[in-house]
Amino acid sequence: MKSHIFFILLAVIAIAGVSVAFCIIQEPEYVQIKSDDGIVNIEGLTRQSRDVTVAVLGDYSYQIEPSSASFQQPLTLTFDLSQTHFNSTIAVYKYNQDLMMWEAVSSAIDPSAEEVVLEQSELGKYTIKQYSVIDAPDFVDTFDSVLTMAPKNTVGYELAVGFIDSNGSVIRISKKTQLGGCDGIVAHGNREELSQMERKTRVYVDSVEQEVDFLIIGRWFVDDEIGCKGGQVLMSTQEM
């Protein structure tokens, strides 16, 4: 008799749990919103439709929220370029908060293009900027210098290079990246720190030689309790 009652209670609890889950887990909804200037259109399936917003920050610059969420299905971001006014090659950039740099999320775009469509699983700050082809120097020696700035108990790192454009924005150079850690094994520790180093040199930008300011960012993953074990040293594991 007691076992019979026990199984009945288990069934009731299971049914209650399923009911609560259906109440909490919302079915995906189709969301479509447009920026006030009519340039950015966002659409797709999401369970966070009420929270998806887009704010115009300035000329062709937008904050799309929630920036901290990662969507199971990418949202479609369409930028209506017919309303923009550029006379040179452009690209869509997204701001990397961790490295404090803008990263190109589209390929180079002819200014006469009507639109550009992106699939994005994470939102944040976007902008449309002039795209420059830059002949960046090899920063391997500088990377070695930056590594000497690593905080105590660093167990992993990311080194990134960007150039400062005419508006003061730092544009990341994707091919100038180095990842590493203790004996080349990247760990993420329990906190992060940043270091930076500036370099100025003459390089070719869009086939024109000019003096350019570069910024090298060291992003350090620190474990306050462990650090690299005896005999291990920080070294590169991947270069891009």
Can you characterise this structure?
The protein is mainly beta. The chain has a five-stranded antiparallel sheet with strand order 3-4-9-6-7, with no helix packed on it. Strands 12-13-10-11-14 form a five-stranded antiparallel sheet, with helices on one face. It is built from two helices and 14 strands. Strand 10 (154-164) and strand 11 (170-182) form a beta hairpin. The chain folds into two domains: 29-130, no CATH class; 140-239, no CATH class. The chain has helices at residues 2-24, 140-147, and strands at 29-34, 40-46, 53-58, 61-65, 70-80, 90-96, 101-104, 115-122, 124-130, 154-164, 170-182, 191-205, 208-222, 234-239. The longest helix is centred in the first third of the chain and has 23 residues, at 2-24.
